[in-house]
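FORM 7B: Structural annotation worksheet

SECTION A. Query
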Amino acid sequence: MGRARRWARSRLVGSGIGDDEPLAETLILLISELVTNAVVHTGCPAVLRMLFGGSGASGAAGTVRVEVADASDRPPLQRHAEGDETGGRGLELVDGLADRWGWLPEGAGKQIWCEVDRSGPVRLPEAPSGAGQGGEAYEPPSCLFTNLA
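SECTION B. Predicted structure
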């Protein structure tokens, strides 16, 4: 996961998002959760992509989209952890931090994606859940990716 975080931080700085900005920290946390889920729950290699677009599914300016693709065709399962459980909070965290998230088939596997609007308020981990699933096609002007195999 450290490799994914280092790669993402370098791309964020290159896109004009400062390493110490709350938006950067939110995106790094989302990336960590999605990559960890892909590796732990599928046992398959993952591909991480970050897309910096002019507008996302909601039409908001400056949307950053994170995509993690793996070779498993099993859909993600959002669990609700109880008490001292150490797992089961990843997608709840994604739901609370991202403006939108969802998943879709990709090749023989799947892609889990989330979007954060750069122009909107940055959601902190304590923020209430308000993101939804589903989405529309997203056509960004640039795409950066790394294979985490």
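SECTION C. Observations
The first strand starts at residue 46 and ends at 52. The radius of gyration is 14 Å.

SECTION D. Sign-off
Analyst initials: ____
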